Amino acid sequence: MNRLFSLVAIFGIFLFNSCGNKYKLELHSPKTIQVNKSLKISVIEKNGKPIDSIQYFINGKIILDNESVDISDFKLGKQALSATVFYQGQQRKINNTIYFMASEPPVVYNYEIVNEFPHDKKAFTQGFEFHNGFFYESTGNYGKSSLRKVELETGKVVQKIDIDKQYFAEGMTIFNNKIYQLTWKKNKGFVYDLETFKLEKTFNYQQSKEGWGLTHNNKKLIKTDGTERMWFLDPETLKEESYIETYTNNRKAENLNELEFVKGKIYANLWQKNSILIVDPKSGAIEGIVDLKGLQSKAAQKGDDNVLNGIAYDEENDRLFVTGKKWDKVFEIKLVNK
């Protein structure tokens, strides 16, 4: 009996000491921070117990033992913050999530109409591009999707193929004499010969689950999927190699849709909005917002469905064109600082 009591007592002492020695560690950081500010991070032990050393990491990359970090070169958006804490011959990893925001609020632009051109008011525009004097357009809706080549001055469709009714066509772009076209929910894209519109191959998406907008930066294809992300694809393998997330100085922008690459920036439509975001392709910072209210009514449309959804750029003549779903006009516009 005494022996049993002794064993119980020893076990109780061991349990008490084990609980007493347990470290309660917390990783402290802000939930959001603008990238022009220094990131202050720290680890505390809630009971005041000693810590030997700490290593900090952002997205798995060590940032030395520094508790004040320069984050000015980081991409924006969600980041995985972690710390490995060393104490009493042990180590423990603790994690946190933080969001990096743009340094400055976006510049707001209005517009001036330079020219107006006719547009097929039955075309549910999903992708729009200017190439060698013509517009190339991807139109959507099941059973009505198409790829077409259109005269600028007249709006006449001079070349067209219909897309199988199982697909809802989305964004498109032209790169290296190929046309790349997305579909919405079928996880499939198409690659065509530019001159003949002959289908050359198909490709599947990877991490991005849907197809929305498409453009290129003369090196990579750039794709949206309806979230805040823009994906960069190898034009040969069609693999998604990286992405950016689009943020202002205080919020993210979701529902990114049709795209165009203009003077080193990504211009992006927002789904169901008559506006364009101007995005830095390196960081994801939203540097500008173009307010295009008024154009929808000038194109004989209204409501949330048939909004702005087409951006095309004539690089040679520095002309910016916009249109929308079932709009009867294409507008050449000039941006004006609001």
Structure description:
By secondary structure, the protein is mainly beta. Helix content is 7%, strand content 51%. The longest helix is centred in the N-terminal third of the chain and has 20 residues, at 2-21.
Concise overview:
The protein has helices at residues 2-21, 295-298; strands spanning 25-28, 32-34, 38-40, 42-45, 53-58, 61-62, 68-70, 77-87, 90-101, 107-118, 125-131, 134-139, 146-151, 157-162, 169-175, 178-183, 188-193, 199-204, 214-216, 221-224, 229-233, 240-245, 256-262, 265-270, 275-279, 286-291, 308-314, 319-324, 329-337. The chain has 338 residues and is mostly beta strands. It has two domains: 22-101, Immunoglobulins (Immunoglobulin-like, Sandwich); 107-337, Methylamine Dehydrogenase, Chain H.
